[in-house]
Design a protein that fits this description.
Helix 5 packs antiparallel against helix 6. The strands form 2 sheets. The protein has a 7-stranded mixed beta barrel with strand order 1-2-6-9-8-7-5. Strands 3-4 form a two-stranded antiparallel sheet. It is an alpha+beta fold. Helix content is 34%, strand content 21%.
């Protein structure tokens, strides 16, 4: 890795010399715009919209649009006079509990590597953060911009997470959420069962970017001159949900089946039964009982099935009586 920044962490009267490294990298497959006929790279020229002439990079300045066709032009000297006191320092402002920092504020992560002479104060700050279960709120200037950030410990290394400023977070305002929408007790209980059936310990290594892998295969095939064959997979169309309770039940059964757990044999019949009961009972309190395991529902429905077989067996016996009467006559 190559260091992108060098400075010091200001921890009270203690100064810790560190180097900054990007902790993440994007794995997206990048493409260049090319001419379809000959593969030539497409180039763009920097052209002034007023005189139509090409502009050299050294003649380009930053402009702020005031509206109405007015523009304020800023030069490098204007940016040099800005008060960036944290240009070469990571200033610790305070220490807060980690759970108080909303994850939506996090932006980008960096590793901090200490200089050889700063190994001991580096370890001191790292261990103190671990023991107190807190993160440090800091200010740092990166790429000519002052940013709010946190210092936390990950795998015995200090990690700097740059953060968005509070006014950069948009407010979530949706009129539909202002309506009085609530879940029924039976639906809430079944949703809890679904969550429990899908509960697991998070392991990010088990997830892969299927799209990127498939795209890489296409690129490799093109490069090797092979024909790209895309196998057709028959996807089962999702069944239309009769109601929320039926959809939750089906989801629980599918989650159990995916984990290899035993599921009731008549799961499909239970879904239909639940749909009919929900439509008949409406929002009655009896629906709370439907949130119990599906085995009860299947057991109740098994009784009519046995009663139905008895008349079928008795039918031939009744028909035999008239036949014997004809013979004797």
């Amino acid at each position: 890795m190559r260091a992108i920044w060098k400075g010091a962490v200001s921890f009270g009267l203690v100064s810790i010399a560190v180097r900054l490294y990007s902790a993440t990298e994007e794995k997206d497959i990048r493409f260049n715009q090319v001419h379809r006929d000959d593969g030539g790279r497409i180039k763009y020229k920097r052209v002034c919209s007023i005189d139509g002439e090409e502009v050299a990079y050294d003649d380009i300045a930053k402009g702020y649009d005031l509206g109405g066709g007015e523009m304020v032009i800023l030069t490098d000297d204007d940016f040099a006079d800005l008060p960036l006191t944290t240009s070469r320092a990571i200033e610790v402002l305070e220490f807060v509990p980690a759970e108080q920092v909303d994850p939506i504020l996090y932006n980008k992560a960096y590793y901090l590597e200490p200089d050889k002479t700063a190994a001991k104060p580096y370890a001191l700050l790292r261990d103190a953060l671990t023991n107190t279960e807190r993160v440090a709120i800091v200010k740092v200037a990166l790429r000519q911009r002052e940013q709010l950030a946190t210092l936390r410990v990950r795998e015995e290394v200090l990690v700097l997470n740059t953060m968005l400023w509070p006014d950069e977070i948009r407010a979530a305002k949706f009129d539909i959420l202002d309506e009085d929408v609530s879940a029924r007790p039976a639906e809430l209980a079944m949703a809890g069962s679904l969550i429990e059936s899908m509960a697991a310990d998070f392991d990010p290594s088990t997830y892969t970017d299927n799209y990127r892998e498939a795209l890489q295969e296409v690129i490799d095939a093109k490069a090797a001159g092979r024909e790209v064959v895309q196998p057709e997979e028959a996807e089962e169309a999702p069944a239309a949900a009769v109601d929320l309770m039926a959809a939750l039940r089906a989801s629980v059964e599918r989650a159990k089946a995916a984990r290899g757990e035993s599921a009731p044999a008549a799961a499909s019949a239970a879904k239909k039964t639940a749909a009919k009961k929900t439509a008949a009972a409406g929002d009655s309190d009896d629906e709370v009982a439907e949130a119990t395991p599906i085995k009860r529902t299947v057991a109740k429905k098994a009784t009519p099935a046995k009663k139905a077989t008895a008349p079928n067996k008795a039918t031939p016996a009744k028909k035999a009586t008239p036949a014997k009467a004809r013979k004797s006559a």
